[in-house]
Hints:
Elements lengths: L2 E4 L16 E4 L6 H6 L5 E4 L12 H9 L3 E5 L2 H9 L5 E3 L1 H7 L27 H13 L5 H13 L7 H8 L5 H14 L3 H18 L15 H8 L1
Parallel strand pairs: 1-2, 1-3, 3-4, 4-5
Amino acid sequence: MSAVVFVGPTLPPRRRPADEPLWDWRPPVRQGDLYRAALARPQAIGIIDGYFEVVPTVWHKEILWAMAEGIHVFGAASIGALRAAELTSFGMRGIGRVYEGFRDGVLEDDDEVAVLHGPAELGYPPVTDAMVNIRATLAAAARDGILTRQMATGLTDIAKALFYKERTWDAVLQAAVAGQPADLLRAFAEWLPHGRVDQKRQDSEAMLEAIRSYLAARPGPLKVTYELADTVAWQAARQR
C-alpha cells in the first residue's frame, strides 16, 4: 500500500508518523504536482497544504483525472479541505471540521486557511495564525468561560478583518485593547498558550487515520461516475 501526502506547515515533519512505509511525504502541492504524483499510481493521495497566490495552485482537473484513473483522493485542513468541498460530488473525500465548514457554506474565503511560514529546511515554522484556528480557539475560550460569547464574536471579527499575512494573536489582542474589557483580555491572554486549538493539525491527523483505515480495507480502484473531457487545455497542461 502507498499514499502520497502533500503537506507542509499544518503537519510539520516532527509531527508526522515515523517509520511507517505507507506514507510518501511531499511538500505543499503546486499546480501539476498531483498529476505527476498520480502517474506513479499510488493507491491514495492526500492533500493538506498547497501553495497559492505566488504560484499556480493545484488544479481541479488534475484531481479529477487522478480519481478517473482509480486513485482515491482525500483532502483536509487547508487547500485540501477547499478542494474536497468543491469536488465532493465527484468522489473526493473530505475529512475534518474545516472541510465541513467549506462544504456547508459556513466558511467561504481562502484566507480562512492561509498562513505565512518559514522554509521546509527549518520545518515550516509558522509566522501567522490561520483564521480557522483562531475561530476554533475563541469558541473553546467561550465554552471554558474565559470569554463571553459576545467577546469571542468581537475578537473573531477583529481577526477576520486583518490581512492574512498580518493575522497573529498579538495583532488580534492589540487591536482589541480599545474595545474589550481589560480583565477578560488578560485572562484570555494567560489561557491562550495552553488553550489554543490547532484545528488544521487535528483535521490533518484525522485524514491520515482515514487513509490508513480505508486502505487497510483494500477498497480497490476508485470508480467514478463522470467522464473526463480530454480538452485542448488539458492536453496542453499535461505537456507542461
